């Protein structure tokens, strides 16, 4: 496991404001640096700019972010609640697809709404405690996903993964990479092919970095190489994370995931999704209802993903940049959660998984 923590938190103390300390993933792998946010605007911007990214990590960061709201000493109980509610609503606008964001913020809203006027002075500490609890729960869930998923990969020599769903996308250990880390600790050394993941290269920059830091054998391939590698028998399984899973088992994940699932099915290779139960949106009947974030054209138009880089698409050409696509449940071999494994997921099996 890489040593760099994705998210650190400092509660308000002795006049010092609360702070959310983020590993700046926009600078990896060339530079390991951190961004400290002490106000809502800075944290909102950090989420939008992908300083912190990955559905579980976004939820954790946003939960901590609620505690950054500034409360006037003269505020009434109702004004205190309204300030925190406004902070929650603002943070919810940062990324539309990752349901973990809204799950975490709903938990923070419950704390705000449940405290009586007589105990309103305790609200900042109660919110900090809830955010810390969300963070701790994520660590435990990641470990359990690794444990439950490991047997599915025990006969594999190589796996292909897409985007980044490791320790950088969570509190630690990861989702899609959790079984790989778990097996690595047990001495079963899988080789990983990491799709570069256009347009922002999260696989090349982030997955390859953290696996290398952990001593895992990783090889970066361009997104367009996946089919050729499968045809040559070089891939034993595909494993990805998720940003939202519908009640039927349709999975929204980083753009480029759906074609991998199609290729895996054609080549009779298992396609696994690893995600905590808080990534499921059981109110959505199908993946067609999942909102897909549309990001700025400069991420595609420039090699570095920003206007300061080298232009690779002429200004006269149009650009489309959906951040996610949806993989139908029928292409998913299994979904692995902290509760266990859902084989050939569908609405009935998912409902049974939730008990």
Automatic annotation (TrEMBL):
Pathway connected to this protein: Amino-acid biosynthesis; L-methionine biosynthesis via salvage pathway; L-methionine from S-methyl-5-thio-alpha-D-ribose 1-phosphate: step 1/6
Active-site positions on this chain: 243
UniProt xrefs under Gene3D superfamilies: translation initiation factor eif-2b, domain 1 (1.20.120.420), Translation initiation factor eif-2b, domain 2 (3.40.50.10470)
Alphabetized Pfam families for the sequence: IF-2B (PF01008)
Domain of life: Bacteria
Protein's GO biological process: L-methionine salvage from methylthioadenosine
Protein's UniProt keywords contain Isomerase: yes
Site (Transition state stabilizer): 163
Keyword Lipid metabolism listed: no
Keywords for the protein's UniProt record, in alphabetical order: Amino-acid biosynthesis, Isomerase, Methionine biosynthesis
Binding site for substrate: 53-55, 95, 202, 253-254
Top enzyme category: isomerase
Family to which this protein belongs: Belongs to the EIF-2B alpha/beta/delta subunits family. MtnA subfamily.
Matching HAMAP family: Salvage_MtnA (MF_01678)
Purpose: Catalyzes the interconversion of methylthioribose-1-phosphate (MTR-1-P) into methylthioribulose-1-phosphate (MTRu-1-P).
Protein name as catalogued: Methylthioribose-1-phosphate isomerase
Organism from which the protein derives: Allorhodopirellula heiligendammensis
Name of encoding gene: mtnA
């Amino acid at each position: 496991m890489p040593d760099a923590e994705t998210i650190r938190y400092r509660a308000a103390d002795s006049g010092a404001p609360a702070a959310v300390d983020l590993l700046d993933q926009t600078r990896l792998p060339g530079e390991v640096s951190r961004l400290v946010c002490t106000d809502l605007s800075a944290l909102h911007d950090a989420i939008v700019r992908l300083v912190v990214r990955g559905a579980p990590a976004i939820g954790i960061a946003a939960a901590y972010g609620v505690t950054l709201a500034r409360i006037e000493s003269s505020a009434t109980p109702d004004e205190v609640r309204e300030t925190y509610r406004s902070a929650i609503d603002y943070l919810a606008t940062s990324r539309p697809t990752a349901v973990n964001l809204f799950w975490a913020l709903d938990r923070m809203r419950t704390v705000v709404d449940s405290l009586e006027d007589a105990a309103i002075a305790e609200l900042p500490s109660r919110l900090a405690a809830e955010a810390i609890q969300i963070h701790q729960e994520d660590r435990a869930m990641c470990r359990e996903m690794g444990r439950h998923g490991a047997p599915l990969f025990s006969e594999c020599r190589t796996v292909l993964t897409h985007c980044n769903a490791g320790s950088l996308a969570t509190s630690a250990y990861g989702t899609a990479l959790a079984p790989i880390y778990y097996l690595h600790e047990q001495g079963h050394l899988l080789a990983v092919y990491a799709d570069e993941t256009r347009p922002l290269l999260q696989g090349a920059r982030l997955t390859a970095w953290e696996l290398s830091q952990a001593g895992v054998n990783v090889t970066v391939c361009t997104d367009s190489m996946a089919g050729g590698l499968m045809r040559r028998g070089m891939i034993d399984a595909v494993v990805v994370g998720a940003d939202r899973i519908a009640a039927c088992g349709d999975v929204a994940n980083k753009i480029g995931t759906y074609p991998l699932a199609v290729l895996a099915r054609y080549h009779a290779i298992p396609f696994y999704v690893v995600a905590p139960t808080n990534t499921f949106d059981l109110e959505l009947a199908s993946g067609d209802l999942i909102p897909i974030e549309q990001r700025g054209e400069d991420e595609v138009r420039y090699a570095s993903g920003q206007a300061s880089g080298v232009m690779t698409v002429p200004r006269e050409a149009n650009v489309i940049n959906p951040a996610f696509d949806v993989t139908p449940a029928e292409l998913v071999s299994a979904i692995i959660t902290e509760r266990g494994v859902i084989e050939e997921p569908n609405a009935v099996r998912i409902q049974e998984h939730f008990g």
